[in-house]
Write a structure and sequence with these properties.
The protein has one domain. 41% of the residues lie in helices and 14% in strands. It contains 4 helices and 6 strands. It has a 6-stranded antiparallel beta sheet. The radius of gyration is 34 Å and the shape is elongated.
Length: 196
């Protein structure tokens, strides 16, 4: 009998020790969690200006690259299809000539007279010249342009105040105001600086 009592006494001692372990269990308190959340919020707040600057730089680089693509497409069009004349608009550069595999510009850039890409609105115009011949991709006679103007204006000029423009000379200009309506179809821009 004593043995049974000893065993039952041992069992209650084990339960008491187990209860002590449970009540002294280590873990996170509410204060620890609040402090951790506040620290993560502070670090995020400190990182936001850098992320915003990086986004603006990436959008500007994309705008410059897209204007270079438009310049290349216009030169290819003038040499191979336009008999020395440029396309008066973006959709014309998106028409594939009968003997070619692809158009001068992809569908993303040539679906309309203007398009939005990477935070910038792109537009291109060229004044038609009555003596221009018909092009190989279906542009009627008298519609080809002796020059063109392409511009990239930021969707939000407050967040990203850099405007870009180019023309038949192939030079890309930048300024804090738009080149739309002020840039000539060839020659230097009336304002801004050139990109190197």
């Amino acid at each position: 009998m004593r043995r049974e009592e000893a065993e039952s006494g041992g069992a209650s001692a084990k339960i008491a020790i187990a209860r002590q372990k449970c009540s002294g269990e280590a873990g996170f308190t509410l204060i620890d969690m609040i402090f951790t959340c506040a620290l993560i919020g502070l670090l995020s707040t400190l990182a936001m200006p850098g992320l915003t600057r990086a986004k603006d730089v990436a959008q500007a680089a994309s705008a410059i690259s897209t204007l270079r693509v438009i310049n290349s497409a216009q030169v290819s069009y003038a040499v191979t299809c336009g008999s020395g004349f440029y396309s008066p608009d973006l959709p014309t550069l998106g028409v594939t000539p009968p003997s070619a595999v692809q158009a001068f510009l992809g569908p993303e850039e040539s679906a309309a007279a203007s398009f939005i890409k990477s935070g910038y609105t792109f537009a291109m115009t060229g004044a038609s010249m009555s003596g221009a011949p018909a092009s190989c991709n279906g542009l009627a006679a008298g519609m080809g342009a002796p020059g063109y103007v392409a511009s990239a204006d930021p969707v939000s000029a407050i967040a990203n105040p850099q405007f870009y423009g180019t023309n038949a000379d192939g030079t890309i200009w930048t300024d804090s105001t738009t080149f739309n309506g002020t840039m000539p179809e060839s020659g230097p821009a009336p304002h801004g600086t050139t990109l190197k």
